[in-house]
Amino acid sequence: MKAYDEKHIKNIALIGAAKSGKTTLCETMLFEAGLIPKRGSIEEGNTISDYHEIEQERGNSVYATCLHTEWRDYKINILDTPGLDDFIGEVISSIRVCDSALMVLNAQHGVEVGTELIWDYVDQYGKPTILAVNQLDSENSNFNQALEQAKSFFGPAVTVMQYPLDQGPGFRRIIDLLKMTMYQFPQEGGKPEKLPIPEEEQAKATALHNDLVEKAAEHDDQLMELYFEKGTLDEEELRSGLHKGMLNHQVFPLFCLSARKNMGSGRLMGFIDHVAPGFLDLPPEKGVDGKELPRDPRGPACLFLFKTLQEPHIGKISFFKVLSGEIHAGMELQNQTAGGTERLNQLFIVDGKNRNPVNQLKAGDIGCTLKMKTAGSNQTLTDRNFPPNLVPESIHFPPPRVRTAIVARNKADDEKLGEVLAEIHSEDPTLVVEYNRELRQVILHGQGELHLLVTRWRLEHVYKLQVDFQAAKIPYRETIQKPSTATYRHKKQSGGAGQFGEVYLKIEPYFEGMPQVKEFPVRDTEVVELAWGGKLVFNNCIVGGAIDNRFLPSILKGVMEKMHEGPLTGSYVRDVRVSVYDGKMHPVDSNDISFKIAGMMAFREAFHQAAPQLLEPVYEVEVSAPDRMIGDIMSELQSHRSIIIGVDSHKGYQVIRANTPQAETDRLYSALRNISQGKARVKATFSGYTPVPPELQKKLSEEYRKTESNGVH
Ligand SMILES: Nc1nc2c(ncn2[C@@H]2O[C@H](COP(=O)(O)OP(=O)(O)OP(=O)(O)O)[C@@H](O)[C@H]2O)c(=O)[nH]1
Ligand SMILES: [Mg+2]
Fold first, then answer.
1. HSE-CB for 500 with a 13 A CA cutoff
2. Is 207 within the bounds of a domain?
3. Would you say the CB of residue 22 lies under 6 angstroms from ligand 1?
4. pTM (whole model) above 0.90
């Protein structure tokens, strides 16, 4: 392969809603550039980009794939990203390292929820963006509608570069407004003929061309002057104006495509070569402390690892972008993020599963290496001469949204499962693993049901670990609604030393600012801030030495034991005030354990008579979906015990906010995904605890009683 310097490398992330045609477009670009002799297709499961077995099985992208084409004098590195928001982590890291983003819109659907979701990240990183309306050959394609939606969503920066003629199955002509030419493709696609714009399109094309010229001139005073002088701009001047506008997010050029029929990709690649901003055009990266990072192609090396993946038979592959200098195989680099050194044994450029070894990679390029010792995603490696402590901002991934409990089918694999899950998390930070002490479960938190299923698939196929998903338990809480009292005598006299302790106590619902108990003199109060939220207030109201002071801590211990494992369902108890007001001791048999048991049992009894109330965690769920789906979504929310708290309109979408019990959220998400065909977008944040409905409380406490009587507790 030709060696490309930093001025002739362009990194493009292909992004867009699910099934908009990104992977098909990649295939077409590789074919057009002569890198593959024949185009594969999603339907046949033989594209270069979707090479993972799971992708071929499912017919959609799961991982971001690196590919490259050589088009004229440029190397275009392409990152083909998945559209389903289950795999948003792959999209974010690709956006992070690209120079420009290519947002693919489906001509049938225009701006979709997925488009919006991904746009948040493009916007955040301020990456120059090209828009491409794809699938113009499809039966229901509607270019004008897609364009209107794009203008309304992306704003006035949308700049029409092309428009289609005869869209639908007979689509084969594109009017290009920069070149003022018509491209006419053979019916089966391929190399177009360049023809004059037909007479009947002249007026429209000229008007749009003038808009384009104005747009290009708008961001450059010199061009503006030229435009006023000449009344127009030539192609070179237009390119320069568009390039500038793209850098400031003031121009989003919009192109026309049929990726499947191979129409329009050559022109798009030409535009990427000559107009789209490259590595050196973008402002230099900023370090964590806001200082600019050196970006000297001939200076000391710095690379950013944006992705790692464990592949069967190969091991760990680490993908990186060279941010400064030039890197060579065999180089030793310092890990600025995690410490330690790493040797770059081999360097490769990548095309899906094919890796071609190279000796060096220059600033701005993307490549991969194998078998890094410890370095993981989101870390920076530099050579010794790079200024120390200058680390680029790492990627911030969104918090997970769904969860499941996971167990190894074979108990002996428990430890291995823990290690592998930690490794998968380091590859994919959007998947979070937690051992939850309260629930006594290993919980896998992911971006969506599919994300979790793909993780299971990886565990089984890549790591050869058989696992089962189980329902993640709900962290219920228990509390009480009215005061009650109880007495418990613990007495044991069989064999050796006896045990004796008797406790009288009162319990009350605790709330902030409640007055102190009046019926007993309070000698001492201990306030326990509970790790799981809420409080336990413990009053010592013993008079006349009925119980020795030294036994009070044991009584508190007994109470705390029941606070840990509530009497109703075994969940944590919160917000209770306990006043120990009387009791009895035995001169010989009383000891700590006796009072601990008496305290625990008295508390348990009092609790059952104090109108116990089970509380459940509730999440504020925000669902965004197209207007037409709102009725179905509302009823789905309501059938999952949700309380609607607000509905807002937002650029063609409705945003519904509701409080939904956690016990319902997982089922709600999959129901929403089904009824909206993946078009609904859901966000959820923990909002607090609310009482469980009486029927459900009865069912849960009966279930618990059964396990108790089976001796489980
Ligand atoms: N008619 C038509 N179909 C297309 C075109 N481009 C892609 N498709 C079809 O649309 C479907 C999705 O294509 P993909 O290339 O997998 O889309 P994607 O954007 O990569 O999808 P995800 O990776 O799952 O987000 C496939 O069935 C393609 O054959 C096109 O230009 N015209
Ligand atoms: Mg794809």
1. 14
2. yes
3. yes
4. no
